[in-house]
């Protein structure tokens, strides 16, 4: 294992059954202390890859290694130990709506750290201060905006000072101001804590602005390209250019494969038209 990489994905394939693989023979390394964006359209396997890293799924083939240790999805004791070193920001926050902002952030500390309550209080307030919400500690989740809720979820994700922070669609559903705040927080927290960050998203501009490294995935679990943001933005590959520029048609077709219009609407095709000519 290279000391430069916290996560190694070695020839990994995954599918819920043997007939349809979501990921196919993927090999990737994620550098320590960096922000890596995993980009791609819906259904390409981005979130599945993150779940394999977190041990929620077991690879069909190949292996995932965290800090040199093979992640074993069937070893509950190992997963409990490893997950103390991982923070996860779920797509829609997954906050406890019947708890206050403070109690949501305190939850992982009480579950995993066994700390005195006075220390839990100080840590929670520090984490909320880092995301700009110390003053909202007493509020219920129903009393804050969607953007604020995402920041509470981020404070909870970093409560245990994880080595790895994984973000699943952190910009989904946010307005432009909240999106900018979230992006800045991801970058700042990564640099201040020295953590390694994985950002799963389809939001190109925000990810390109904060990432050190970018992986582009496509439908069928393929890795289309990887490199620095500048590498991908300057790529001459047609599939990469289509995605980073948001073009509606290209190698990824706008139209789902279908029979010809003539067939579907019972119109005469070219051959039939020729036969009718005098």
Keywords:
single chain; 278 residues; alpha/beta; Rossmann fold; 6-stranded mixed beta sheet
Element order: H for helix, E for strand: EEEHEEHEHHHEHEHEEHHHH
Q: Tell me, what's the shape?
A: globular
Contiguous low-pLDDT stretches (5 residues minimum) are 272-278
Give me the CATH architecture of one domain, please.
Answer: 3-Layer(aba) Sandwich
CATH topology of one domain: Rossmann fold
Number of helices: 11
Question: Structural class of the helices, strands and pairings?
Answer: alpha/beta
Strand content: 15-25%
Q: What does this molecule look like?
A:
With 278 residues, this protein is α/β, with parallel strands linked by helices. It has a domain at 5-85 and 162-230: Rossmann fold (3-Layer(aba) Sandwich). Helices cover 37% and strands 21% of the residues. The protein has 11 helices and 10 strands. It has helices at 46-54, 76-83, 101-112, 117-130, 146-157, 176-193, 204-210, 229-233, 238-245, 261-264, 270-276; strands at residues 5-14, 23-31, 35-39, 61-66, 69-70, 86-89, 164-168, 196-201, 213-218, 222-227. It has a 6-stranded mixed sheet with strand order 6-7-8-3-9-10, sandwiched between helices. The relative contact order is 0.15. Residues 272-278 have low confidence and may be disordered.
What is the topology?
Layout: E1 5-14, E2 23-31, E3 35-39, H1 46-54, E4 61-66, E5 69-70, H2 76-83, E6 86-89, H3 101-112, H4 117-130, H5 146-157, E7 164-168, H6 176-193, E8 196-201, H7 204-210, E9 213-218, E10 222-227, H8 229-233, H9 238-245, H10 261-264, H11 270-276
């Amino acid at each position: 294992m290279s000391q430069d990489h916290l996560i190694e994905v070695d020839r990994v394939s995954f599918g819920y059954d043997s007939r349809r693989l979501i990921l196919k023979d993927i090999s990737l390394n994620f550098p320590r202390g960096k922000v890596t964006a995993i980009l791609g359209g819906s259904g390409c396997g981005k979130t599945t890859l993150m779940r394999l890293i977190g041990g929620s799924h077991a690879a069909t083939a190949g292996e995932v290694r965290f800090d040199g240790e093979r992640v074993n999805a069937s070893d509950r004791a190992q997963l409990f130990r490893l997950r103390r070193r991982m923070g996860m920001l779920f797509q829609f926050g997954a906050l406890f709506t019947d708890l206050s902002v403070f109690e949501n952030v305190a939850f992982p500390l009480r579950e995993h750290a066994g700390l005195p309550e006075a220390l839990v209080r100080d840590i929670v307030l520090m984490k909320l201060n880092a995301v700009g919400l110390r003053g909202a500690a007493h509020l219920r989740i129903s009393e804050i905006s969607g953007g604020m809720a995402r920041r509470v979820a981020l404070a909870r994700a970093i409560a245990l000072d994880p080595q790895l922070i994984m973000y699943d669609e952190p910009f989904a559903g946010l307005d432009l101001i909240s999106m900018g705040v979230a992006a800045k927080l991801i970058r700042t927290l990564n640099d201040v804590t020295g953590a390694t960050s994985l950002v799963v998203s389809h939001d190109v501009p925000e990810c390109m602005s904060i990432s050190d490294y970018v992986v582009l995935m496509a439908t069928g679990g393929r890795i289309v390209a990887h490199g620095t943001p500048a590498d991908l933005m300057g790529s001459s590959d047609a599939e990469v250019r289509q995605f980073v520029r948001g073009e509606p048609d290209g190698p990824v077709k706008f139209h789902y494969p279908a029979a010809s219009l003539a067939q579907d609407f019972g119109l005469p095709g070219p051959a039939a038209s020729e036969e009718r000519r005098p």
